[in-house]
Amino acid sequence: MNRTYFDKLVAEIGKKGMDAMLIAPSADLAFLIGHMPLFCLRFQGLFVTKEGDYFYVCNLLTADEMREVLPNKKVYGWFDGEGFIRATKQALMDHGLIGKTIGVSSAVRAFNLLELQEEIDIKFVSARSLCAEIRIHKTPKEASDMAEVARIASEALKRTIPEIRAGLYEKDVQEILVGHIRKLGADGSAMVASGPNSGYAHYNSNTRRLIKGDTVLIDFGCRYHGMLSDITRTFFLEKMGEKQKEVYSLVKEAILAAERVIDQGERWIPAIDRAARRVIEQGGYGKYFTTRLGHGLGYMPHESPDIKQNNERYLEPGMAFTIEPGIYMPDEFGVRIEDCMIMTPEGRCRILSDALSKDCLIIGQENA
After folding, report:
1. How is the chain split into domains, by residue range?
2. Which of 21, 51, 116, 236 has the fewest CB atoms nearer than 10 Å to its CB?
3. What DSSP string describes 90-118?
């Protein structure tokens, strides 16, 4: 049990006016209790009360496993032939939660909540951001680990670039990059989108073969001591057209504009988003910048705070996040440049991925 963050969660539950919170198997649960049970259609989850008590409800298949994990051993098991309502109701009664308000994490399935509300006097409310909020301010140790994981990722990409050539498949480049990350002592993943595939902001395949003239967008990261990096760089294979050059220049200027206003002291997130978005809009490509400017980062790939125009909050010391403007033209090409960064205790912004240049780079020329 991660007591530091558990205690933070308990405090936040009370502040939000809830009586308890339900967290289903997810990265949030694994972070909190150090274990990730198999998640299937059967209802299960950790209930945490505002008084700091906790208990787990799950099928009998998982009950003994969870008793080994939870320090207080409070597990309510239910049998397939009976269903989960009775055991859950008993658990809620034992902890004085009948008629109370329970927040739910993003992984809790809606159909389970609807079935519970039909049988039990309980009110469920969304608390999907609460687990992320308790992690939003990184400790000095976490900040140091984030710097190291960004260094590892950056070095891995530097080693990968000379190996990229026409004729490889996207999955080949992925494997080369992830292999270098492993050699450097971390676990990693990568998305490689080439040619027209780079025009999709969340491309999710790897089967295209690279050809001369391709835009090659590489979004990658790795994990070190539980902390994550998230970086994107875009390259051009052997040659670059005028439109590719124009788009790349706009995206580069957009990320520099955002980083510049942060460096000058801007902490209002909508203003930071605006600084980058204005560059791309004025360049005539505003309709192709279809994503938020960035997102929080840390133990999870996407945490609080979101860097977007309707997130009306200020950056604070300890917050880690990405800045990643992009122009995405489906069936043509796209460009994204992404840095990961963290606010220092002094309130300055440190770019963790600054070992990687943002200059436009043509790669693979020696293999032409």
Report:
1. 3-133, 140-367
2. 51
3. HHHHHTT-TT-EEEE-TTS-HHHHHHHHH
